[in-house]
Amino acid sequence: MSLAVTAEQEDLRVAVRRFLDTRSPLSRTRELMELPVPHDGRVWRAMATELGVHGIGVPEEHGGAGVDVQTLAHVFEETGRVLLPGPLLATLGLAVPLLLASGDGDAQARHLPGITAGDTVATVGWLAPGAAWDSVGGAAAAVRASGIGWVITGRVALVLDGLAADLCLVVADTPAGPSVFAVDTMGPGVDRQRVPALDPTRGLAEITLDGAPCALVGEQGAGRALLGAALDQACVLLASEMVGAAQACLDTAVTYAKQREQFGRPIGSFQAIKHKCAEVLVEIEGARSCARYAAWACGAVPDEVPVVAGLAKAAAAEAFFRAAAENLQIHGGIGFTWEHDAHLFLKRAKACQVLFGDTRAFRLRLADQLGL
């Protein structure tokens, strides 16, 4: 086992950071979060065509590179540093893993090439309004209709980047149990509404389906297993994203502490500030180790992923929130203003804490898995 960054992965990190610094810095994030759909289609397609990001985890037969999740996790660390708006997590963290886990060659051939090329934005919806993140079923129901195949009806809540998506993989009830269906979000019987969120850089939507045509993905009754596999990988990539964002918070805080003077000396020379930064660094390094191990496990020991994915997500969420909160405190009064970026990281950190389930829920699930 090796968690060391390879030369190829480091080159990818450098390329992604250079691209984001030029094409999607935090100033651009601020512009996008004011839009109904916080998504820059040009950046999305450029990341696919110029960097090949979208195809990293996609098999070669569908136009991808067929590389492991460990490499993709490094990309998410870099996107976390700039709070990249857009459907990267929804598409590469949820939709692609679900399609791959389905084993449905037809569905993969239909959707993966478009995702790889940057032409298709995909997401996954499974929650009924008011349901907990770990609930499956009850949001929608699919039935066969003569002459047109499957149709789906229901209301799916908290769909990540649902307004930007061209394709939504919906987990719906069938006589055989929860199953996955591909829905064209621009097709008939589909209505999408924006859901206001604490984090304005991550879009959420509610999708209402009224007899919308759809296509079965995988086998009937396999929805729970497929969603579980997708959520595990999403948690791993989200953990990597949070580690990158937490590191950005620490870097910003340290830079400011070296520049800001009080009582004739930089505030970074005071022991209280030193301790804050040192403790945040220790938390980030622990979270980074968890996230990188979980990303490695996705390819090397998949049986461990259901355990380590939740651990990585919980550790990264705690580290990110601590880093964002301390960054704001170190900046003092200016950190609380709308003009400063510190509050954007704090909002993303708080939202990430509860995304896919809060830290307490993941720790309880881990205890159950370990038989504690």
Report what the structure shows.
- The chain folds into 3 domains: about 110 residues, Orthogonal Bundle (Butyryl-Coa Dehydrogenase, subunit A, domain 1), CATH 1.10.540; about 100 residues, Beta Barrel (Butyryl-CoA Dehydrogenase, subunit A, domain 2); about 150 residues, Butyryl-CoA Dehydrogenase, subunit A, domain 3 (Up-down Bundle).
- It has 11 helices and 9 strands.
- With about 375 residues, it is of the alpha+beta class.
- The model has no long low-confidence stretch (mean pLDDT about 95).
- A hairpin with a 3-residue loop joins strand 2 and strand 3.
- Helix 1 runs parallel beside helix 4, helix 7 packs antiparallel against helix 8 and helix 8 runs antiparallel to helix 9.
Q: What's this model, at a glance?
A:
With 372 residues, the protein is an alpha+beta fold. It is built from eleven helices and nine strands.
Number of strands: 9
First CA to last CA: what distance? Answer: 27 Å
The proportion of residues in beta strands is: 15-25%
Cα-atom radius of gyration: 21 Å
CATH superfamily of the largest domain: Butyryl-CoA Dehydrogenase, subunit A, domain 3
CATH class label of the largest domain:
Mainly Alpha
Number of self-contained structural domains? 3
Order of helices and strands: HHHHHHEEEEEEEHEEHHHH
- Based on Cα principal axes, name the global outline: globular
Helix content: 40-55%
Low-confidence stretches: none
User: What is the typical, i.e. mean, pLDDT?
Assistant: 94
Q: How would you classify the helix and strand content by structural class?
A: alpha+beta
Number of helices: 11
